[in-house]
User: What shape does this take?
Amino acid sequence: MAKSARALSFLPVPKIVEYSKGACALAGDRFIALTGAPASQLMFTAHRLQAALAAHAGVTWALTASGVAEEIGIAYTIDPRCASDLPATRAPDEAYELLITPDGVIIRSPSPRGAWNATLTLIQIVEQAGPSLPCLRIADAPDFPNRGVMLDVTRDKVPTLDTLFELVDLLASWKINEIQLYTEHTFAYRRHRTVWDYASPMTEQDILELDAYCRARFIDLVPNQNSLGHMERWLRHPAYQDLAETHDPFTTEWGSMRGPFSLNPTDPRALALMRELYDELLPNFSSKRFNVNLDESLDVGQGRSKAEVEARGEGRVYLDYLHKIHAEVSARGRIMQFWGDMIIRHPDLVAELPRDAIALEWGYEADHDFADHCQKFAASGVPFYVCPGTSSWLTLVGKVDNARGNILNAAENGLRHGAIGLLNTDWGDFGHHQYLPVSYPGFAYGAAMGWAVTANRDLDLPRVLDQFVFHDAAGVMGKAVCEAGNAWKRISAPRQYNCTLYGRAMIASMERIKTWVGPKPAELRAALKVIDSAVAKMQKAQMTRLDADLILREFANGARMAQHGAGRILLAQEKDAAKVGALKRELRASLSVLAREHDRLWHARNRPGGYADSAMRLANLGNDYK
Assistant: This one.
């Protein structure tokens, strides 16, 4: 019996789904026909389909390029002319039609890339319906030509290659077609070992293997190397100290920071360093794009470039450096991507950006002003992406509704103003204490909105998480993860940007926490109760993933960290000396438990480099409990 139309889930939801009567029985000795393009271009796609048919429908159908009609169960037809019958899109090669009839399945697309997308949708149907597929027609195409995920591999956590392969497969199954690994110091540059010696960096062979793995799945692995700000892990070493803007304190919109942080953009040696890094990094990638970052260089003008900035202006000095970097990227046959936060501070200079560079407009709160910034980039004629985030970092267990609001805001304004891509970011600031599954809700919703905004705006996120992420037959995991990821809403004040209050308390000093106005203890306890209840519900999940037990442990330890963070706030608020002593004893004990588990969980998915830094941040909390 075919699964009913209402029972089918999709991630992402296609633009047009039309059900009809009847079912298609996947049975007998039939073939999968590959026609309209060289069969070699469809082989990887067809192999993925064969594996799904064997696993979920119990049939083993061979491949053919002959197209003998009476023996065909599934037919691929690559025909550029069919684009006119499909939804309008700026990426016609990714469009497809999937037709399931009582006689078989037909996949039509202008290109093998579109056939891949159709196959991903068909696999989702087979996973749910088994050997009896509902008859239907799907016509589909993406809103954004470029739909990406950027994973932070610099803030301590560098995933193992196996972890990256698993994540690539997951993201590819949702039609993600761009991946970046955010890098400051975690690529093994041969002449700069002192910078990455304890970081377990990505090697050239790692990148070559990952690039090939992505390319087979129609994913562009875009190289990424910060090239101005966020260079402190280089500039603190003696060999690079002279390249820093400053080693002294400097002011930012977040308060005072201490250098080093940015390169001095007026020093020719900084550009020479970038040339050397690019020459070693870029040949390992097949992508024609390259993200040089250039974000948050807020110390520029407060150190060695001060005189130049005073004479010519911060924006002009920044733009000149950007143009020099652009020339180096172009000379190497690449298209430059860069974060747009610094240039948007000088809107009069946006029109002077290189027309072939791609601006990355980012912001991570649900109310970020994507509308205004997108309009400015669109008016300048500069191509741009919108870049929201998963809201996982500094949250410990997530911030799901903020992620949804942030991604929806980015997607709607990006689509309205002509953005050519949506790059969903996942950061690891201050020790990368959140675990990978905390990011899954944001990854899933970002993939959905990058594909089709209208069709996926009201996506049933818990349901698709159960079906396509956690593979939970009990149907409890998705809802529980979202409940834990929305516990932050129980705390009314103070508002937290890019974090939860209990997450921030895990990196803030006790002196700083004492200055916070609020929150109310009753609200803190209410939030913890939600998290504890959600983690308890997770124990009833029936996940078929190989890492199911690991996922449960990761959420459990994330909950311990949230409890500990809340405990730090309660300690800062407590005035009774006896109660202070009792709270300190409780926090010492809980810190010992969560730190030991953090050790085990870290090494389950990540390389050892960076762990010492992350663990040190936790260990230092113990100084407050003496």
